[in-house]
Amino acid sequence: MSTRSFASTCWECGSTCGSLVTVSDGRVIRVGPNKAHPHSAGAFCAKGIRALPQWTYGERRLLHPLKRIGPRGAGQWRRIAWDEALALVAEGFAGVIRRHGAASLAGAVSGAFFSRGPVMALLMRALGSPNWLINQDLCGGCRAVSDRVTGLAIGGGEDIAHTNCALVVGRNPYAADPVQWRALQAARKRGAGLIVIDPNRSPAAERADLWLRPRPGTDAAIALAMMQVIIAEQRHDQDFVQRWCHGFDALAERVAAYTPQRAEALSGVPAADIVQAARRYADGPSVFVSGHGIDAFSAGFQTFRAFHCLVAICGNVDRAGGNRRAKRPPGLRTWLDLLHDPAFRLPLEVEALRIGAQRFPLWSGAGAWQGACHNPSVLDAILTGEPYPLRAMLISGVNIVITYPDTRRTRAALAALDFLAVAAHDINPTAALADVVLPKTTTLEEEEVQLQPGGPCVSYTQPAHPPLGEARSDLDIASALLDHLEPRVPVNRALLPWRDQRAFNAFLLGDSGIDLDALARDGFARFDYVLGNFGEQGFATSSGKLELWSHRLAELGLDPLPDFTAPNGATSAAWPLLLLTGEREKNFHHSRFRDQPWLEQQTPDPRLRVHPDTAARHALHDGEWAIVQTAAGQCRLKVALSERVPADIVSTGMGWWRPRGEGPEFGALDVNVNAALSYAGPYDPATGSPDSRGIPCRIAAAP
Ligand SMILES: Nc1nc2c(c(=O)[nH]1)N[C@H]1C(S)=C(S)[C@@H](COP(=O)(O)OP(=O)(O)OC[C@H]3O[C@@H](n4cnc5c(=O)[nH]c(N)nc54)[C@H](O)[C@@H]3O)O[C@H]1N2
Ligand SMILES: Nc1nc2c(c(=O)[nH]1)N[C@H]1C(S)=C(S)[C@@H](COP(=O)(O)OP(=O)(O)OC[C@H]3O[C@@H](n4cnc5c(=O)[nH]c(N)nc54)[C@H](O)[C@@H]3O)O[C@H]1N2
Ligand code: SF4
Ligand SMILES: [Mo]
Fold first, then answer.
1. Contact status, residue 7 vs residue 18, Cβ threshold 8 Å
2. How far is the centre of ligand 3, averaged over its atoms, from the C-alpha of 535 (Å)?
């Protein structure tokens, strides 16, 4: 028996914890935390320990390419060889490109947080298409675009370890991020303050010394009023503002109208608590820890602008205990860099064709954050042919039938395509609609190199063994696909030149001086950095300062200052409750792992948190199935009585389907909350995000 252990990084979720992996006879027998890792310092979770190996070795794992032999969605497949699969996909794509042009092809992936993101974008570009879809209109996009427009670059740089006060807004680190959760607990222990803004009594709220409980979608009013108090009491960092911020006077004028009393009327949070939060936050260094609870809704961008301006005027930028700007070793490239590198861009006139570029330039235009499509507009293009036909897709590492709002419409759009290829680990409700399914590697079989602003360090994920069966990584699939497309249609190979992940990773490391062998030995590489080096590492805005008043927004005709927009959803007699979605569960990752026996036992059904008084009014009992109905649709969830939610709010997770249920839906129209949601807008004017929270609904016992 041969056994070896090595340091790696779990990249099953965004926490990217340092791991120690033991492999015996070609199989992973143990995964655990690596205490030496600079970012995670020993934090870890059951998904990394248990779910990931089961996902790799489970009986539902797809290990060979499949071709549809019956009608689409009928679940009739034939196993085929890779060559045949690639030829079929190449012919499907080439046919569509010949008939409708390259832009009629789109790729969908979760985002540029993993290497499969840029690989997908560059594959599409190599074929001449500017169209690729990412999740971030539903996830973190409002935060990222605001961060970029403001010039902060603080994503992932929360220095909780040295803070005097943590401001946690719309974030549930208990379930979503063990690294943050441990750091927050340690900070509390040594006496740091904790302010939590959350309509739910989350585990963080329970431990806070100040918990603000806003009505969903009203957080911007709180941030604006905190700034009003701080500026009126001259608690802001005047030196920092004078040297490094642009537009302070205009901001001061804007926030003057947002007194704590007005914010109380808008958000439901007592004015006195807002004043207290403002004073505590200003007594820094303070760190802003934000989450999905204030992102992914139709005023998410401006909400983040308000909090980001608060961070800036208090000087909590790039100082110990504040929000550190992303640091990197010189010469290193990130995945996001690849998307913006002129060497890998399409001509501007082709980028202008990207679906969404005209309406949401900060999201889909040239030079936008990730430069991805506006997803709901892509689904429209498939179904209506406007602004032009979109006829074929490659989908990888994303289960959009479950995770995009409006399940019926997503399914209808996929079913209407001329050709659909899906790369996946199993037959999920998205893969079920494909013409060809390609078997993918799991993160135990992949090599990744990534910058971790939190460490800060460069982390390495080491493949534990070669892919099982005939599974291939995204880069291998993309590269082989280009080989098959080259004889059929014009291909610009220079836009995706790497033949394997090693070459790709070596390119990312560039001349940073970090070498792959050293990374493979330790699992990470630290690098030197300096805090507060504003003179040397400037702010990427047109004024070269942090823009409280944004030139870019003004140019685009958007409000250059942060402001409050009233939420769209309001309760009424017909829709007496507000629905929150997306509550994270510790052991699930979105729609993954739903077929694992230990999880089926532990969490067999999707949960709807209902306040006991609300349940009593509806004659609903704990453990009963309820129908949740909105103006857009409905789904079925199991009632869990909970005093964490207010009486006028019900709250659920996301990602539910039934792997052992009947295909091709596998429960997608039944237990999946996105069957009850709309993707038709209103949209955030900057990011195109829809409301995935605060949606008027009603509940009733399921028949
Ligand atoms: N175990 C596990 N971990 C995960 C994931 C997973 O699926 N499983 N997914 C990962 C991903 S991709 C993401 S995006 C993150 C998401 O994780 P988080 O960023 O923590 O986001 P959520 O859990 O959606 O919501 C966080 C909190 O926001 C609150 N909230 C809801 N509406 C509002 C509001 O209007 N205002 C305020 N202030 N708060 C509100 C909710 O009550 C909740 O407590 O988790 C990541 N981590
Ligand atoms: N209503 C509502 N909808 C939401 C949300 C919400 O809060 N409410 N949250 C949104 C958010 S924040 C997000 S991030 C999205 C998530 O949406 P998705 O990204 O679609 O969710 P997952 O289930 O994580 O991923 C789906 C597929 O990715 C593949 N996969 C898993 N791991 C890997 C890997 O390591 N490599 C590759 N190549 N593929 C892999 C698997 O085949 C899996 O089936 O959902 C969004 N949708
Ligand atoms: S939180 Fe869990 S799943 Fe996410 S990276 Fe860490 S160990 Fe992996
Ligand atoms: Mo997300």
1. yes
2. 36
Q: Full-prediction pTM beyond 0.85?
A: yes
For residues 558 and 685, the answer to whether their CB atoms sit within 8 Å is yes
Q: Which atom of ligand 1 is nearest to the CA of 217?
A: 35
**Is any ligand 3 atom within 6 A of the Cβ of residue 44?**
yes
Among 9, 45, 54, 193, smallest CA distance to 659 is for 54
CA distances (Å), origin 541, targets 61, 198, 552: 46, 31, 8
**Residue 94: how many other CB atoms lie within 10 Å:** 19
CA of 405 to the centre of ligand 4 (A): 14
- CA gap 70, 663 in Å, rounded: 13
Count of residues for the chain?
703
Of 293, 400, 491, nearest in space to 679 by CA: 400
For residues 266 and 233, the answer to whether their CB atoms sit within 8 Å is no
d(CA 152, CA 311): 9
Give the mean model confidence (pLDDT) for residues 130-141. 96
Q: Is 645 helix (H, G, I), strand (E, B) or coil?
A: coil
Pairing of strands 210-212, 524-526: unpaired
Does the CB atom of residue 45 touch ligand 3 within 6 A? yes
How far is ligand 1, taken at its centre, from the CA of residue 544, in Å?
33
pLDDT in tens, 453-471: 888 999 999 999 999 999 9
* Beta strands at 457-461 and 524-526: parallel, antiparallel or unpaired: antiparallel
For residue 240, what pLDDT band results from cuts at 50, 70 and 90?
very high
CA of 34 to the centre of ligand 4 (A): 24
The pLDDT of residue 545 is 98
Q: Which ligand is nearest to the CA of 41?
A: 3
> Which residues, listed in sequence order, are joined to residue 461 by a DSSP beta bridge?
448
N- to C-terminal Cα separation, the chain:
56
**For residue 73, pLDDT beyond 80:** yes
**Phi, psi of 495, deg, nearest 5:** -85, -10
Which residue, among 386, 323, 699, 318, has the nearest Cα to 529 in the 3D structure? 318
* b/e map 5-21, b = 16+ CB within 10 Å: ebbbbbbbbebbbbbbb
Q: Is the pLDDT of residue 633 over 90?
A: yes
Ligand nearest to the CA of 444: 2
Lowest mean pLDDT among 40-44, 450-454, 560-564: 450-454
CB of residue 398 inside a 6 A radius of ligand 1: no
Neighbours of 4 (CB within 10 A): 9
C-alpha radius of gyration, the chain, whole number: 24
Decide whether any atom of ligand 3 lies within 6 Å of the 48 Cβ.
yes
Closest ligand 3 atom, residue 33 Cα: 7
Cβ–Cβ under 8 Å, residues 425 and 55: yes
Determine whether 78 is exposed, middle or buried from the number of CB atoms within 10 Å of its CB (0-12, 13-18, 19+): exposed
Query: Helix crossing, 219-232 with 300-313: angle to 10°?
Result: 20
Ligand 4 is an ion; residues with CB less than 5 A from it = 139
Give which of 328, 325, 299, 323 is closest to 311, Cα–Cα: 323
Structural domains present in the chain: 66-140+329-526 (3.40.50.740), 154-324+533-555 (3.40.228.10), 577-701 (2.40.40.20)
Ligand 1 in reach of 139 Cβ (< 6 A) = yes
